[in-house]
Write a structure and sequence with these properties.
Elements lengths: L1 H57 L6 H13 L5 H22 L3 H5 L1 H36 L3 H7 L12 H5 L30 H12 L1
Helix pairs in contact: 1-2, 1-5, 2-3
């Protein structure tokens, strides 16, 4: 009888341990998902703001096509792909936008535009929020992944099919590589339009004019 009670008690303890571990996995996974949802909201906000910025800037600057293509492609990438792909696109987009803001310093009318200033402020605020929530998200991912990989969690993680979460962090090589944004053709549709015409060579006085001057002096 005692052995039976001990056996039942052991089974109860094991069952409770499994429940605690399982619920811990669920709780940590939910924190990761909630933090990711906050990142996703800010990424979509940035996605929605970029077309307005491009349209406003185009009113003052005439960008070459590959600049708009680069920013547009990065804009699409921040809401598609894997977590790391989104992180990489987000980091590269931040660099591209900084380039645009830096060039805008050369245009007083653009800097004075209320629309441009509001969009710049909103995009910078959004980027700050992304930086803040990505830090929390990565902390939750680390905690969750550790619980899946440490004993005895690793046994039950495989049993219940819990998968590690991805960090919102671009690969180091990709994050370190700056986005190439070419502004060489800005201000003109034709790159040759900015080239200054060569100075015309000084004309030599014509023989007729020289003869006339000599005749006049003779008088």
């Amino acid at each position: 009888m005692l052995a039976l009670l001990l056996g039942v008690g052991l089974l109860v303890v094991i069952a409770l341990a499994i429940i605690v571990i399982f619920n811990g996995f669920v709780s940590k996974r939910n924190r990761v998902q909630d933090a990711w949802a906050q990142i996703d909201v800010q990424l979509k906000r940035r996605y929605d703001l970029i077309p307005n910025l491009i349209n406003t800037v185009k009113g003052y600057m005439k960008y070459e096509k590959n600049v708009l293509t680069t920013v547009t492609a990065l804009r699409s990438s921040i809401v598609t792909g894997t977590t790391q792909q989104k992180a990489q696109a987000n980091d590269q987009l931040s660099q591209a936008l900084k380039s645009i803001f830096a060039v805008a310093e050369n245009y007083p009318d653009l800097k004075a535009s209320e629309t441009f200033k509001n969009l710049q402020d909103e995009l910078e605020t959004t980027e700050d929020k992304i930086s803040f929530v990505r830090s929390s998200y990565n902390d939750y991912v680390l905690e969750y992944n550790n619980s899946l990989q440490m004993f005895p969690g690793n046994i039950f993680a495989n049993m219940f099919n819990f998968k590690p979460a991805e960090f919102f962090k671009a690969p180091e090589a990709a994050a370190a590589e700056p986005v190439k944004v070419d502004f060489s053709d800005m201000n003109n549709d034709d790159p040759k339009a900015d080239a200054k015409p060569a100075s015309a060579p000084a004309k030599k006085p014509s023989k007729n004019k020289k003869s006339a001057q000599q005749t006049g002096s003779g008088n």
